[in-house]
């Protein structure tokens, strides 16, 4: 569904993403993980068209979309959420979702009907008539997800949709994400919460200092010495191995 090949992005002298490649196969949940500042959101922004890469290509459903702006990618069926949620505070939850629905439903009545259905799907049924400004953090995260879903995506890019949620809220939203996948939407997600990555993702890519350093099933990636070093610092893998040997 999505393939990014050799993406590079520089900001003045800083190379934020350096020759990074990944693929998100149709009908699966793929994860992108890495320490803070690794370049994950920059990579997402290039995939979605919000940033233009200095090198590399983005292919969506077999078509090269590297030069396309975000609104054309949205029409093709690509949608993304944002790490910092910014709903239209003066609108109701229903109206916020309808903004996304208008992409394919020009009539207000159709867009509002679609918004109702999407709101119920993500657990916002009781909040549809509330002002978006009054939502909790968990509610705002669900609204961000709903607005993206309202565009009827084939591919959903989720940027830390679980950030700021407590364990109970995370537990409640995981089935929602699985259900979206089960209904035919391919998902590529950035996530720091490893329990969620283990539960949701079938394949994971690891970005560190702008470079892809590992990929594979989550359990294998979590044991990769390079990944341990990237998250926990120099010498961490050796210390963990030594501690494991001592315990044995």
From TrEMBL:
Domain of life: Bacteria
Entry-linked PROSITE patterns: ABC_TRANSPORTER_2
UniProt record, GO biological process: D-alanine transmembrane transport; L-alanine transport; L-isoleucine import across plasma membrane; L-valine import across plasma membrane
This protein's GO CC annotations: plasma membrane
Gene3D superfamilies documented for this protein: P-loop containing nucleotide triphosphate hydrolases (3.40.50.300)
Any Pfam family hit: ABC_tran
Domain ABC transporter: 2-234
Keyword field contains Nucleotide-binding: yes
Keywords, alphabetical: ATP-binding, Nucleotide-binding, Transport
GO MF annotations in UniProt: ATP binding; ATP hydrolysis activity; L-isoleucine transmembrane transporter activity; L-phenylalanine transmembrane transporter activity; L-valine transmembrane transporter activity
PANTHER family reported in the protein's UniProt record: AMINO ACID ABC TRANSPORTER ATP-BINDING PROTEIN, CONSERVED COMPONENT OF ABC TRANSPORTER FOR NATURAL AMINO ACIDS-RELATED
Protein name in the entry: Amino acid/amide ABC transporter ATP-binding protein 1, HAAT family
Originating organism: Albimonas pacifica
């Amino acid at each position: 569904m999505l393939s990014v090949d050799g993406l590079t992005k520089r900001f003045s002298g800083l190379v934020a993403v350096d020759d990074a490649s990944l693929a998100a196969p149709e009908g699966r949940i793929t994860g992108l993980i890495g320490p803070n500042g690794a370049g994950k959101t920059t990579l997402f922004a290039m995939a979605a068209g919000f940033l233009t890469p200095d090198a590399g290509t983005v292919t969506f459903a077999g078509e090269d979309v590297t030069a396309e702006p975000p609104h054309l990618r949205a029409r093709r069926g690509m949608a993304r959420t944002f790490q910092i949620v910014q709903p239209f505070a003066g609108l109701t939850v229903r109206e916020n979702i309808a903004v996304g629905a208008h992409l394919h439903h020009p009539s207000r009545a159709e867009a509002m009907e679609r918004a109702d259905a999407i709101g119920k799907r993500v657990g916002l049924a009781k909040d549809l008539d509330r002002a978006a400004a009054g939502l909790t953090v968990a509610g705002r995260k669900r609204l961000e997800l709903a607005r993206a879903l309202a565009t009827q995506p084939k591919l959903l890019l989720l940027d830390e949709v679980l950030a700021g949620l407590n364990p109970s809220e995370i537990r409640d939203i995981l089935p929602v994400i699985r259900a979206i996948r089960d209904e035919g939407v391919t998902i590529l997600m950035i996530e720091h919460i490893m329990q969620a990555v283990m539960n949701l993702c079938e394949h994971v890519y690891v970005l560190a200092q702008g470079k892809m350093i590992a990929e594979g099933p989550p359990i294998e990636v979590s044991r990769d010495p390079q990944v341990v070093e990237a998250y926990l610092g120099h010498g961490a893998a050796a210390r963990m191995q030594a501690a494991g040997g001592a315990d044995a």
